Automatic annotation (TrEMBL):
Name by which UniProt lists this protein: TIGR03557 family F420-dependent LLM class oxidoreductase
Luciferase-like domain residues: 13-291
Keyword Oxidoreductase: yes
Pfam families named among the record's database cross-references: Bac_luciferase
Coiled coil (residue ranges): none
């Protein structure tokens, strides 16, 4: 069956709460926990943004079975790719081989804290160079690298797992999918788009895992869930080209100010209807994804959601 994941949203909860949610998710029966890596929340109303890598280390020690993954880390601005490789190798050891390094080209929202946000073409070039650095380091090579964007005079990872940490790459179009097919062990895409799966297969990804992510807002009161989803996730439908370039929560607030509650509810199932949430998940299954991480919108709803997932949602998903 498709592996069911749980999303630790660093934008909507603090670090101690997120560690607790990870433990509860493992106990509930989720097979994967994915972690967002942000410097800012999308909206001020979300109100959080702890450091994902410190959180991952704590979660690795608090859990024993659930797989862990960044979804995603940008290896080109806040972090030098050689440092990302070191962090990933350490996580591979701390988690006893449960960690996958999820990478992507990033967003201005998080990366502008260290300087100007590059043009999309430059970002693509930087991402490819980062992959050319990270991949051999995780494989145990001593690396010397000189590129247009990054320099590595000499690097070697002294602590790394015997089995190299797998790399998953976020991709949505032909150029990024080609990178995923050449350098990555898995694909990440947040839309249930079978065309992207076909592109990945053609680019060398046939037989490799495909990770998706679906947002829902479960709760006993549909009206209240719609309010929560609108308050917390109205940025969701702006699209990658907008989300990648806006600089801060106030920009996302302005860009989404005309998004109505019903607009959000059209794309995020809200309320107690089990089959509506299953149908949203099933779109990824039907598109060919092998792993799908669920985002439960709203921090205050997490404990109730995890109990419901254990008793109703996960058993129903296993029937798929």
């Amino acid at each position: 069956m498709v592996a069911v994941g749980y999303t630790l949203m660093c934008e909507q909860a603090g670090p101690k709460q997120l560690v607790d949610y990870a433990v509860r998710a493992e106990d509930a029966g989720f097979g994967l926990a994915v972690v967002s890596d942000h410097y800012y929340p999308w909206l001020e109303s979300q109100g959080h943004s702890p450091y994902a890598w410190s959180l991952l280390g704590a979660v690795a020690q608090a859990t024993s079975r659930i797989d862990l993954m960044t979804m995603v880390t940008c290896p080109t601005r806040r972090y030098h790719p050689a440092v990302v490789a070191q962090k990933a190798a350490t996580m591979g050891l701390l988690s006893d081989g449960r960690f996958t390094l999820g990478l992507g080209s990033g967003e201005n929202l998080n990366e502008h804290v260290v300087g100007a946000w590059p043009h999309v073409q430059e970002r693509h070039e930087m991402l490819e160079e980062a992959l050319q650095i990270i991949r051999p380091l995780l494989d145990g090579e001593t690396l010397t690298y000189s590129g247009d964007h990054f320099e590595v005079p000499e690097a070697y990872l002294w602590d790394r797992p015997e089995r190299p940490v797998p790399i998953a790459l976020a991709a949505s179009g032909p150029s990024s999918v080609d990178l995923a097919g050449e350098y990555a062990d898995a694909l990440i895409n947040t839309e249930p788009d079978p065309h992207v799966i076909d592109l990945f297969d053609s680019a060398g990804g046939a037989g490799k895992p495909r990770y998706g992510q679906v947002a829902i807002c479960y709760g006993p009161d549909e009206e209240q869930c719609r309010k929560i989803a609108h308050e917390q996730f109205r940025w969701f439908g702006l699209g990658w080209k907008v989300n990648a370039d806006l600089p801060g929560p106030e920009s996302f607030d302005s860009a989404s100010s005309f998004v109505r509650e019903e607009d959000v509810a059209d794309s995020i199932p809200c309320g107690p209807d089990l089959e509506a949430h299953v149908a949203a998940f099933k779109r990824f299954v039907d598109a060919g994804f092998t792993h799908v991480a669920v985002v439960q919108v709203g921090d205050e709803t997490q404990p109730r959601f995890l109990d419901w997932a254990r008793d109703e949602f996960l058993p129903r998903l296993r029937q798929l």
